[in-house]
Amino acid sequence: MRKPVVAGLLLLLLAVQARAQDVVSDLEKRLGKTVDLSADPTLKKELVANGLVNRDATSIDVTPQLVTTAIGVQRFRNHVDVVRYHVGDRILVEQPGSGGKYSPRAEIKGINADGTYDVEVWGKPQVDNPRPVWGHVDVFTGLPQGVSKPSATDTPWLTRNDAHEVVMTQAEIDALNGKVAPTAPYKVNGWTIDPANDPVLKDRLDKAWRTVEKLFPADVLALPQDLEARTKKLEEIARLQEKALGEIFADNFIEHPGNNPRANDRMRQTLADHPDLAGKIGAVLDSACGVCTDQAAAMVSILDDVGARMGLTARAIGGATIRENAGHGFVALRFANGKLGMYDVTWHFQGDKTPVDSMDYATWEGVQGSNRKIDWISQQTTDETPFVDRARAQDLYRGYTAPEGETLLAAQAAQLAATKGIPLGEAAEKVFSRNTGPEKIAGDFSLAELTNRAGSLGTIPPASSPGLLSRLGGLLSDRVQGAAEGPGAEDR
To answer: What is the DSSP letter of 461?
Structure first.
């Protein structure tokens, strides 16, 4: 067995190759300027994708405060999109541990220098007369309401039966857990997904984007450099992702005609009124009618578009039900904290405040709220994630290169000089002396170099308003608290 890389060392990693699109560098080229975003659509698209502006923004002041926030967002992008797979992550594997062809009962235990992973896989225990859970099972902990810790009696679906390790390659893991970002038009479960020619889908995407922009501005996505603080932040982001999924479910509820035959009447009326929607997912969304595979296609038609902004990957999958052995379609979710979940509209009803299921419970037994196997994958990975050598990834968890760090400190000095009316050297000394602590900008540069660099930047005007971090400070805790106290929270 290869010796696994210790997860705590990730803070010290360095990877100059395979870096996410560098929003920090792109902003630093424009420091001190007000950018007309209508004249720079490429930059605007990048800023929207990273939560630094909303889609209706027309301009932006590029300040040191904005760049500081962008560094935190760069860390987030590098974590979820570039390094992507981490010790402790749960993954889908082609193993029979859950009764189907594929299983979510797998966890990365170690990362090897040769580009492979040590993965623990296990099966589910056989239970005589399994009891269903009447209520919500938490998507991340797998615990039902009123249960504080796992046990073979209360949470048998969390028992790791016949656990053993296997070695998997990057390609094997990425095939079932990689990024899903197809280019429209494309098809899922027989439906065409093409927002440019589907006004209903376009409208639903606009609404979903408003939800995501509300919940995930840049300060929410920005990760700290400290490993412990970063891990905590990723858990908070994952809870917000769960909240966003609840809102998207409520805004796009689709009724299975098996539960209400009148749903078929709505579909017929939609197609009669809008024959151009035939074969397009907008017909399902507009009529709020569809069987399980239609519902899954509708959910990914939205999440394929907005998921990347919040660091969430959705993938249409399916399999036989455990009890009836009937085909069923649903959606696998990969959260920013590396955990898996299931999104299954058929298993939930209008007004349900907790529509995201625990993957372990969902694939456990043929009982209420579970009863699902994974036999097929309806959406393949579209964007390959290359292996990142964990011995060379420090820049990724810093979020900036040494030159970018120096430029940021120099910009802070230039701005301080302009704000306080003091010489650049004095301003640089103040910035240099404050650059301490866990979020210190690291780099081998001197006070003289910092002063010279600040002079080369020209005047950096004072911020006209607090930077993103201070202006939006506290919103993350408010959002997480809202998710904890909102409807259905008692089921968590």
So the answer is: P
pLDDT classification of 125: cutoffs 50, 70, 90: confident
Give the pair of three-digit tokens for residue 136: 């919500």
Cis geometry, peptide bond prior to residue 64 (ω within 30 degrees of 0): no
Q: What are phi and psi of 3, to 5 degrees?
A: -75, 125
Residue 390's pLDDT band, with cuts at 50, 70 and 90, is confident
In angstroms, the CA 400 to CA 433 distance is 20
Would you say 78 and 50 are in contact if contact means Cβ atoms under 8 Å apart? no
Count the residues in the chain: 492
Q: Which amino acid is located at 302 in the chain?
A: I
Tell me if residue 488 falls in helix, strand or coil.
coil
CA distance 402 to 416: 21
Other CB atoms within 10 A of residue 255 CB: 21
Nearest to 294 by CA among 281, 304, 306: 281
Q: Quick check: helix, strand or coil at residue 404?
A: helix
Amino acid at 172: E
**Mean pLDDT, range 287-313, rounded to an integer:** 98
Query: Pairing between strand 340-343 and 327-334?
Result: antiparallel
142-152 average pLDDT score = 94
AA letter at 359: M
Dihedral, CA of residue 358, residue 360, residue 366 and residue 368, to nearest 10: -20
**Is the Cα dihedral 84, 88, 94, 100 positive or negative?**
negative
Rounded (10°) angle between helices 292-310 and 199-215: 40
Q: Measured between alpha carbons, how far is residue 431 from residues 91, 419, 423, 455 in Å?
A: 44, 13, 13, 14
Residue-wise burial string across 201-215, b where 16 or more C-beta atoms lie within 10 A, e elsewhere: beebbeebbbbbbeb
pLDDT at 207 over 70: yes
Here the tokens at position 440 are 């210190």
Cα dist from 266 to 5, 349, 420, 433, 475, whole Å? 55, 17, 65, 67, 40
Measured CA to CA, the distance from residue 456 to residue 470 in angstroms comes to 27
25 phi-psi bin (left φ>0, alpha ψ -120 to 50, beta other): alpha
Mean pLDDT of 191-215: 98
Q: Which of 353, 304, 351 is nearest to 331 (CA)?
A: 304
Residue located via tokens 């999104």: 343
Residue 22 has pLDDT above 90, yes or no: no
Please choose, from the candidates 13, 167, 27, 175, the residue with its C-alpha nearest in 3D space to the C-alpha of residue 79.
13
Q: Which residues contact 275 (CB under 8 A, 6 or more apart)?
A: none
- Bridging pattern class, strands 340-343 and 186-188: unpaired
